[in-house]
Each structure stands twice: as C-alpha cells, then as structure tokens.
Write a structure and sequence with these properties.
38% helix; 7 strands; seven-stranded mixed beta sheet; 247 residues; 10 helices
Length: 247
C-alpha cells in the first residue's frame, strides 16, 4: 500500500457562494469522471439548480487519480480515498448528495452505510445489483463476459489492468452488495434503463419491496450509460431536496 494518504483527483467543482446542496458524482468501472460531462453541462444550466455545488472525482485506478499495483482496488481503498477527498472540500453543514453510476453505485452506497448520517440522499444510476444466487449461477459468467466484450470494444488494454479486474472482483461481485442495499437507512433513488443489458432487472422489484422506506426507483427507456434519459431525472430530485424543510 502506498504510504501517502489515499485521495482522489478532483476533476470538476462548480464553486457556489452559499450552496444549498453539494452533489458528488462517482463514475463506473472502465471509465472516469468524464462520463458525467454531458450531465454536468445540462444540470449546471438549469436555473433552479444554480445554488448546487457539483463535484466529480476520478476513482483510484482511473483518469487522473493514483494507479498502483500496490492498491487492492477494494472498498477499503476507494472509501478511504473518497472520504479524505470529501473532507478536503470543507463542506461544513452543507447537505451532501452522492450520485453513482454502475460500479460507482456500490461505492456511494457503501460510503453512506459506513459513514452513517453524513449523506442526505443517494442516487444510483444503472446499479448492477446481483444476489448471492446470481453469483453462484454458472450462467452468470455469460453476463460478465458480455460486459467485458463491450469494454474491450472501447479499449482492450483496460481488461488487463489490475484496477479493472480487482474492482470487478472486490466491488462489483461482492456478495454483500444486495444485502447492504436491502438494509440501507439512507434515502435512495435508483434510476435505470429498460434496455440496460448489464443490470439484473429482476432483482430491483425484490430490492424495493425489501426496503420500501428508503428505496425507490425511476425506470427510463435507456441503456447503461449516464445518458440524457437518466440525468434529466436528477432535476426534480434535486429541486425537491432544496425545497425540503428538514435540510
């Protein structure tokens, strides 16, 4: 493990004098924070959201953040780095919203579960939530291979990087992911596309039924990416948070 304190590279930070909310966005596997560029361009031009500070980071092993074979690229590494990075922002009493995409949904969920009462709301975009039964099913490997094939079309070398293989094994395929979400005590909204090939659609109704007090969902017609059908849904969510009396 590198001796220095782990942190993430901040790649975007809209400065607001007196922000009502801080929204931190965490990207998915085989990607970086640029996956939110279109979302940010749209959201930051919505007048009703002008008092929101939007921040993005590159996860360890991605983009401009630290890459090292000494890292495990597990929850411990990523959560430590995210916590340190959020602390450096000196947010004070500003309510915090974490938005995750794909792999990022697991990291922000585990962050809220680990650092309890620090996050006001989670928004999970395209969460690939698998149960223990899924992970033990031999047919599940075909789905994983489908995803790897899609990644290799963009950059075959990514599949050979430790950050990819370790993140897949230690985070995406972690057997506790479903259970953590089913018991989560942070208000959470799942946003997913009906054409998404990489999530287990059949698990989401079960998950919502298990934890209806804290989980809700919005379905769109889109696929897996951070596309317009999903990020436009953030407007109403954030507007309602700003107007809430218990912020």
């Amino acid at each position: 493990m590198p001796s220095r304190e782990l942190s993430l590279q901040k790649t975007h930070d809209r400065q607001v004098t007196h922000p009502k909310l801080v929204v931190v966005m965490i990207h998915g596997i085989a990607s970086d924070s640029s996956s939110f560029n279109h979302a940010l361009k749209f959201l930051e031009n919505v007048d009703s959201l002008k008092n929101i500070r939007f921040v993005t980071f590159d996860l360890l092993g991605s983009g401009q953040s630290l890459k090292s074979d000494e890292l495990n690229y597990d929850y411990k590494d990523q959560l430590e780095a995210l916590y340190n990075s959020i602390e450096k922002l000196n947010l004070g009493q500003t309510p915090l919203v974490l938005v995750g995409h794909s792999l990022g949904t697991f990291i922000v969920t585990r962050y809220a579960d680990t650092y309890k009462n620090t996050v006001k709301k989670l928004v999970l975009i395209s969460p690939p939530v698998y149960t223990e039964d899924d992970l033990e099913n031999p047919a599940f490997e075909k789905g994983i291979q489908l995803f790897k094939d899609a990644v290799s079309l963009k950059d075959r070398e990514i599949l050979q990087e430790k950050s990819f293989s370790a993140s897949m094994e230690n985070i995406v395929l972690d057997r506790k992911n479903y259970v953590v979400l089913s018991k989560l005590k942070t208000p959470t909204i799942l946003i997913y596309g009906s054409l998404d090939r990489f999530i287990a659609h059949y698990n989401l109704p079960k998950l919502l039924k298990t934890n209806p007090e804290y989980l809700s969902a919005i379905r769109t017609d889109g696929r897996h990416g951070v596309t317009r059908d999903k990020y436009t849904k953030l407007v109403k969510i954030l507007e309602e948070m700003q107007d809430a009396k218990n912020l």
